[in-house]
Write a structure and sequence with these properties.
This protein is an all-alpha fold and about 80 residues long. It has one domain. Helices cover about 80% and strands about 0% of the residues. The protein contains one helix and no strands. The longest helix is centred in the middle third of the chain and has 64 residues, at about 15-75. The chain is rod-shaped, with a radius of gyration of 34 Å.
């Protein structure tokens, strides 16, 4: 109990309750922010994996198209 100058301890009780509520809300906010950060890291990892897959698909399509072009050039070239 805090030693205060005179008066009833009930005069200060509402302030202590308010302070406790503020502290509790701050702890809840900190926990929510840490949870949000954790979820954002997971989303970032998923986006990186998706980006890698998309690039792999683009490279695959380009290689198939290039292979077809080379094949057509080889078959269309006049034989000596």
């Amino acid at each position: 109990m805090n030693a205060r100058a005179g008066g009833s301890r009930f005069l200060y009780a509402p302030f202590e309750v308010t302070e406790a509520r503020i502290e509790a809300n701050e702890r809840v906010l900190e926990e929510r922010l840490s949870s949000l950060g954790h979820r954002l890291k997971g989303i970032e990892l998923a986006l990186e994996r998706l980006e890698r897959r998309l690039w792999l698909a683009v490279v695959g399509v380009l290689s198939v198209v290039l292979a077809q072009v080379v094949s057509e050039l080889l078959t269309a070239a006049p034989s000596p």
